[in-house]
Amino acid sequence: MITREELKSIAGNGIWKQNSSLVQLLGLCPLLAVTTNMVNGVMLSLATIIVMAVANVAVASLRNFIPHEIRIPVFILIVAALVTVVDLLFNANLHELYLVLGIFIPLIVTNCIVLARVEAFANKNPPLQSTFDGIFMGLGMLWTLALLGTLREFFGSGTLLGGIDMVFPSLQPIQVLPESYPGFLLALLPPGAFILLGCLIAWKNWIEARAAARAKQKPPAPVEALGCH
Fold first, then answer.
1. Residue 158 falls in which region: left (phi positive, over 0), alpha (psi -120 to 50) or beta
2. Are 175 and 181 in contact (CB under 8 A)?
3. Is the pLDDT reported for residue 227 higher than 60?
4. Quick check: pTM over 0.85?
């Protein structure tokens, strides 16, 4: 079983404190290349979440049976098998999106986020905790890629939800800025993604600095006087 405190700690670390994109800076290649819009970032993150959650529970369940000397090749083999399944599912059910994401779905095998959590957490913790760790680390990646993709798409082309018709054919992208908007090309290129990522990191650090300052200014709780009996 997992306690509420454990779940809260795992969720906080994955989504915010140890965010893989803003703190650990892992998986920068898909982060910079895929997030030309929100849909691409979200769908790649969902694929990564599935792989991370299942890989974590598999490694946590088998960790006592895997010799220490060959653990890394075995971990990679497990992740590669899961990525192959996800890759085939995308190809069969979301073929247009599969073509857009291209090589970055198979490259989940070498994604530092997946291998880092398998080695650092799943290899040392029970299956249930490891499953939640994979899910919440993936959710931290998801909101970061979604926000970065939204900003790049808005500044780059003036639209939102570009490519949503590849996932839900009945929906269409939203034209936020006038169609005469020429677009800001830098936002759609990897250097623009790198600049916006730096802004997101600065924003996160600013929020944490303000929270720390408020915590220091908070007056200590009054100590009740001890009564005589």
1. left
2. no
3. no
4. yes
